[in-house]
Write a structure and sequence with these properties.
The protein has a single domain, classed as Alpha-Beta Plaits (2-Layer Sandwich). The chain has three helices and four strands.
Length: about 130
């Protein structure tokens, strides 16, 4: 059974949604290189649509509930694989690079990371 986590990320004030996405994608390319074979099986990033650059395109719920900018899902082979990945990111040189890079676009004080549980899927029948 895979081990899955979810990251809820926010951009820093003054960073536009498009700049945030550009920087985060470049950041993730470097993280992938850094982690090598210990990179997750999947690292999917879903960016919140912001029609005017600030307000989310909300269908139901208050605008204030959508203050985050990205939901990122990571899928690992198992919990040990996740621990290896996080261990690599926590190595002194890597952690220093990550903190320095994120300081220009990613609000580290508001980031959330949680382990996901069971997944259920409902698909439309053909």
């Amino acid at each position: 059974m895979t081990y899955q986590t979810l990251i809820i990320g926010h951009r820093l004030p003054g960073v536009t949604p498009s700049e945030f996405k550009r920087r985060y994608e470049r950041h993730m390319a470097h993280i992938r290189e850094m982690a090598g074979v210990h990179f997750p099986l999947l690292h999917r990033r879903r960016y919140i649509q912001r029609a005017d650059g600030e307000n989310a395109t909300v269908i139901v719920g208050p605008q204030a509930d959508f203050d985050y900018d990205v939901l990122a899902e990571m899928v690992f082979e198992n919990e040990d694989a996740a621990k290896k990945f996080y261990g690599i990111l926590g190595e002194e040189e890597n952690a220093k690079w990550i903190e320095q890079d994120e300081s220009g676009f990613f609000d580290r004080n508001r980031v959330r990371l949680v382990v996901l549980g069971e997944v259920e899927v409902t698909e439309r029948k053909a």
